[in-house]
């Protein structure tokens, strides 16, 4: 088992469901408590030892590149990878574009997932299965949740249309790969992209096929820790509430350190 030092963030989309907020910027740059979503993610990744991050861009890439000039953490190298097909394809195609970056131990993160650093720390401290999918649990799930079926810590299926009686969690859009699992994922991306429907699929559909086919895909619960997904305008308020709490904790820590 090797500790990942590279992360890939999928930030190619505009976030059309967040219009008009994303009319002039991609959703990864929306302001969340004085920091962009992207800055929150990079800070959290740096805190768990990630030293290199690749941001897959698409919509208004020049704005993302400009943001990185000011928000890249001092102990991290950040590069961008442009996906010119972001208007025509879903995020499986972004993963396919970044397949060379996925080789070896790495983390994969949705560009709209806001998470506290403790979630990343829990993922890094996990046993290091070939593929690990972070999940949360709640009393009920809606049609837009990326639902999962688990058996113990084994992930058996993942998707938005799982039968309700099979669902016992949801993916938060944050994965860990060991070299073996990354190779399996890349092979599945290659197979899927050669099908007519491939470019229009979510990358987690490839994880679903691997899990259903018997690959060792693990589910890691992050229950009790804080995260949020930024899909709709109402999500902005919830994300900003989370960020306000985290900023309060940061300020309190700074005051204790200075006293």
Report what the structure shows:
By secondary structure, the protein is of the alpha/beta class. The protein contains seven helices and 13 strands. It has helices spanning 37-47, 61-71, 91-97, 117-124, 179-193, 204-212, 233-258; strands at 6-11, 31-32, 35-36, 52-57, 77-82, 106-110, 113-115, 131-136, 147-151, 154-159, 169-177, 217-221, 227-229. Strands 1, 4, 5, 6, 8, 9, 10, 11 and 12 form a nine-stranded mixed sheet that branches. A two-stranded antiparallel sheet has the order 2-3. Strands 7-13 form a two-stranded antiparallel ribbon. Helix 1 (37-47) crosses helix 4 (117-124), helix 3 (91-97) crosses helix 5 (179-193) and helix 5 (179-193) crosses helix 6. The longest helix has 26 residues, at 233-258. It starts with 5 loop residues before the first strand and ends with a helix. The relative contact order is 0.18. The mean pLDDT is 93.
Spatial gap, N to C terminus? 41 Å
Q: Main β-sheet, in a few words?
A: 9 strands, mixed
Q: What is the residue-averaged pLDDT?
A: 93
CATH class category: Alpha Beta
What is the CATH architecture descriptor? Alpha-Beta Complex
- Name the beta content range: 15-25%
Percent in helix: 25-40%
SSE layout and pairing:
Layout lengths: L5 E6 L19 E2 L2 E2 H11 L4 E6 L3 H11 L5 E6 L8 H7 L8 E5 L2 E3 L1 H8 L6 E6 L10 E5 L2 E6 L9 E9 L1 H15 L10 H9 L4 E5 L5 E3 L3 H26 L1
Parallel strand pairs: 1-4, 1-6, 4-5, 8-12
Antiparallel strand pairs: 2-3, 6-11, 7-13, 8-11, 9-10, 9-11
Helix pairs in contact: 1-4, 3-5, 5-6
């Amino acid at each position: 088992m090797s500790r990942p030092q590279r992360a890939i963030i999928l930030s190619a989309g505009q976030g059309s469901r967040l219009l008009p907020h994303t009319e002039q910027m991609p959703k990864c740059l929306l302001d969340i408590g004085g920091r962009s979503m992207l800055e929150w993610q990079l800070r959290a990744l740096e805190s768990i030892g990630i030293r290199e991050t690749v941001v897959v861009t698409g919509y208004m890439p020049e704005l993302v590149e400009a943001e990185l000039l000011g928000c890249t953490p001092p102990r991290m190298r950040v590069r961008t990878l442009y996906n010119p097909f972001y208007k025509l394809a879903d995020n499986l195609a972004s993963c396919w574009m970044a397949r060379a970056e996925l080789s070896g131990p790495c983390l994969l993160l949705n560009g709209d997932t806001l998470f506290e650093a403790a979630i990343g720390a829990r993922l890094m401290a996990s046993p290091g299965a070939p593929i690990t999918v972070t999940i949360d649990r709640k009393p009920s799930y809606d049609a837009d949740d990326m639902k999962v079926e688990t058996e113990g810590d084994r992930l058996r299926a993942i998707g938005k249309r799982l039968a309700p009686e099979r669902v016992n969690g949801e993916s938060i859009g944050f994965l860990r790969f060991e070299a073996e699992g990354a190779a399996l994922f890349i092979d599945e991306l290659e197979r899927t992209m050669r099908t007519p429907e491939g470019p229009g699929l979510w990358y987690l559909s490839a994880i679903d096929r691997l899990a259903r086919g018997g690959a060792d895909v693990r589910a890691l619960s992050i229950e009790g820790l804080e995260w949020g997904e930024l899909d709709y305008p109402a999500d902005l308020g919830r994300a900003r509430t989370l960020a306000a709490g985290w900023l309060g904790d940061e300020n309190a820590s700074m005051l204790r350190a200075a006293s």
